[in-house]
Write a structure and sequence with these properties.
Blueprint lengths: L2 H10 L10 H13 L24 E7 L3 H7 L15 H11 L1 E7 L11 H21 L4 E6 L5 H13 L5 E5 L1 E2 L2 E2 L6 H9 L3 E5 L15 H19 L2 H4 L4 E4 L10 H11 L9 H4 L3 E3 L6 H10 L5 E2 L9 H11 L3 H15 L7
Parallel strand pairs: 1-2, 2-3, 3-4, 4-7, 7-8, 8-9, 9-10
Antiparallel strand pairs: 5-6
Helix pairs in contact: 5-6, 6-7
Bound molecules: zinc ion.
Zinc ion binds next to strand 1.
Length: 366
């Protein structure tokens, strides 16, 4: 089919607007999957109504939810730091309002990019990380059951990170650690981060990874902000680096969560499989897929039919988590994506709540 005809077909095709997994939609998905070499889409055994309520009134656990206090906005908006516009206005009250509206029981707080590491200013990074982690922990205490915390550290500062990991877990009772996909030219497989990973591995920590604008690729395409392409790409870069550098296998007890359905990773698995074969990587005797399949992936801005189809060809339902990306997006968006896909009720409950509880059992009390 010529490109123009294909475009016209997709513009006029209304099948993917259906809130349910109709045979027409399945046909569309199967055709799309075949076109990109994904094979057959796994069977969707049962189809939940679009407006199905699963479990309690607020069953969902949101693992991608930002807190952005004003002091962090001021730090990140200094010249040369955050690419693009200031972040949306945010307050604890706005988070709670959004959570109630979207059926979210608990949101795990994490910082917004570009985080706390702005080059070699170690003292600023340590001070800002401590201030943010104290702020987040106070929200967890002030609103019992409603929030958790992925504490921020800056791995290029290994000593400061080790101190903050200890403080975050042992004093603030954080639920995990939040990292960015890259820190200037360093990706997460960087050997200098090993002391930090040794400690996180010893603690069997949950580590949530959020994309940022990489230094390599600011303003590459006129008129297209970095978030539109680079966030998804930077996620793939850092996952590939973790796996191919051997970091993921060296620290197997770290429980990784990646944002936005893994970015572009699910679409590029064929290239990485081939790369491992060509290199005969001894640390990846069965290729990179077994490592990719161990990680968790949340659905914020990664919940269109194509994204979910590709993700579910790479991992099982047990690795998929619910996320909103509030306040940049809201729960309505991901709720709609999940409803449109038409997961079986058990799978939906696993994604929205049970999988997160396995990682973060403390939340069961909430
Ligand atoms: Zn985000």
């Amino acid at each position: 089919m010529p490109a123009n005809s294909a475009l016209k077909f997709f513009r006029t095709c209304r099948c993917c607007e259906s809130p349910r997994a109709s045979p027409t939609r399945r046909t569309f998905l199967a055709a799309g999957a075949a076109a990109v070499g994904l094979g057959t889409i796994p069977a969707i055994s049962r189809v939940a109504p679009a407006n199905a309520q699963v479990g309690a009134a607020k069953p969902r656990i949101d693992v991608h939810h930002h807190f952005i206090p004003q002091f962090h906005v001021e730090a990140m908006m200094a010249p040369g730091r955050r690419a693009g516009a200031p972040p949306p206005k945010w307050s604890p009250a706005s988070s709670l309002e959004e959570m109630d509206k979207s059926g979210i029981a608990t949101a795990i707080l994490s910082i917004a990019q570009p985080g706390v590491w702005y080059g070699n200013n170690v003292e600023e990074a340590r001070g800002l990380a401590r201030q943010l982690n104290e702020y987040g922990a106070k929200m967890v205490r002030d609103y019992p059951g409603r929030f958790g915390l992925f504490a921020v550290i800056a791995p290029p500062d290994a000593q400061g990170s080790l101190r903050e990991i200890e403080y975050a877990f042992d004093t603030l009772n954080a639920d995990g650690i939040g990292l960015l996909t890259s820190y200037q030219d360093k990706y997460l497989g960087d050997p200098s981060f090993a002391p930090v990973y040794e400690e996180l591995n010893r603690r069997k920590a949950v580590v949530y990874v959020h994309p940022t604008t990489p230094d390599c690729c600011r303003g590459l395409v006129p008129g297209i902000p970095p978030a539109s392409i680079e966030y998804a790409t930077d996620s793939t870069r850092t996952i590939a680096h973790l796996v191919f550098s051997g970091t993921a296998t060296r620290f197997p007890d770290i429980r990784w969560i990646f944002s936005h359905s893994g970015g572009t990773l699910p679409f590029l698995t064929g290239r990485f499989i081939r790369l491992a074969e060509e290199r005969k990587q001894t640390n990846l005797p069965d290729g990179p897929l077994p490592e990719f399949r161990k990680f968790h992936y949340e659905l914020a801005q990664g919940n269109t039919p194509g994204q979910i189809a590709a993700l579910l060809k790479m991992v099982s339902i047990s690795q998929v988590l619910y996320g909103t990306d509030y306040p940049f997006r809201d729960g309505a968006e991901v709720n709609r994506g999940i409803a449109d896909w038409g997961f079986a009720a058990d799978d939906q409950r696993a994604i929205e709540r049970e999988n997160a509880l396995k990682l973060l059992p403390r939340l069961k009390a909430g």
